[in-house]
Amino acid sequence: MTSSEALPVLHGANISPYVRKVRVALAYKGIEYSNTQQSPFNAPEEFVEKSPLSKIPCWEEGELILPDSSVILSYLEYRYPDPPLLPAVAGPRARALWLEEYADTKVGETVAGVFFQRVIMPTAFKQETDEQLVRHLLDSALPKVFDYLTDCLGGEEFMVSGKFSIADIAIASAFVNFALAGETVDTDRWPELASYIQRVHAQPCYAPIVKADLEGEFARFRPKDSHNA
Ligand SMILES: N[C@@H](CCC(=O)N[C@@H](CS)C(=O)NCC(=O)O)C(=O)O
After folding, report:
1. Which atom of ligand 1 is nearest to the CA of 21?
2. How many Cβ atoms sit within 10 Å of the Cβ of residue 217?
3. Cα(194) to centroid of ligand 1, in Å?
4. Are 147 and 196 within one domain?
5. Domain end among 79, 109, 128
6. What is the rounded average pLDDT for all residues in the chain?
7. Residue 226 pLDDT more than 70?
8. Contact 185, 193 (CB under 8 A)
9. Beta bridge partners of 60
10. What is the pLDDT of residues 19-59, one digit of tens each?
């Protein structure tokens, strides 16, 4: 890209796990971009025209507008294949895409759901945290998710074929929000998953983003007695 060309724009606030997922993929591939920090709530008409579901992230590159993190990553992988974020072999490739989908749905709902209730509800919506829902997430929903992820990991370093991929980027993202909600994976009950999340967050493309987000504008909501790293 020459200096006269405008940089692609990533619309979306850094705190969103889906925006973080795209930021990490961009860092991994060394792609330059600018970021608007757009919130999805009460978004201006101009943004909703670009992102008809009024969700973040949304990628804008010239006339190309892509309003979904998975579509953005698929585009980036095709357009900038090196370094790859998907295995080349069909089966593992599909497996990585399934785990990306699981992260974007179940992990988002449960792991990031705790952050949404504890932090976003009182701040963005001026509503009380639904403590009953948080208890349900922590005591009932999350253990199933953590068991499933441990199973998928199968003692390997990364989720698919032992190599860092889209699956790891997507899964680990919501755990930054989990930490900001004062929670962490219980290392006694899920030791492999706990060290896996730390390992993914320590990758060169992830570490600066995790640090910035943990120290960013939402750090003040993190409970003082939080036992997270
Ligand atoms: N499938 C979408 C999900 C994006 C998403 O749900 N983003 C949240 C922010 S973390 C959002 O924009 N929520 C606004 C809303 O649901 O109205 C993606 O992967 O990009």
Report:
1. 19
2. 12
3. 25
4. yes
5. 79
6. 95
7. no
8. yes
9. 9, 65
10. 999 999 999 999 999 999 999 999 999 999 999 999 999 99
14 within ligand 1 shell (Cβ under 6 A): no
CA–CA gap between residue 189 and residue 147 (Å, rounded): 9
Q: Residue 184 is encoded by which pair of tokens?
A: 């962490």
| pLDDT of 221 | 77
Q: What is the pLDDT of residues 79-131, one digit of tens each?
A: 999 999 999 999 999 999 999 999 999 999 999 999 999 999 999 999 999 99
Residue-level pLDDT at 228: 42
Does 107 share its domain with 179? Answer: yes
Q: Determine if ligand 1 sits within 6 Å of the CB of residue 56.
A: yes
Query: Are 130 and 187 contained in the same domain?
Result: yes
Report the domain count for the chain: 2
68 lines ligand 1 (CB under 6 A): yes
Substitution candidate for ligand 1 out of 10, 14, 18, 66 with most atoms within 8 A of CB:
18
Query: Is the shortest distance between the CB of 100 and ligand 1 below 6 Å?
Result: no
1 belongs to a structural domain: no
CA–CA distance, 173 with 136 (Å, rounded to integer): 21
Indicate the pTM of the whole model. Answer: 0.95
Nearest Cα residue to atom 10 of ligand 1 = 16
Q: Is the CB of 57 under 6 A from ligand 1?
A: yes
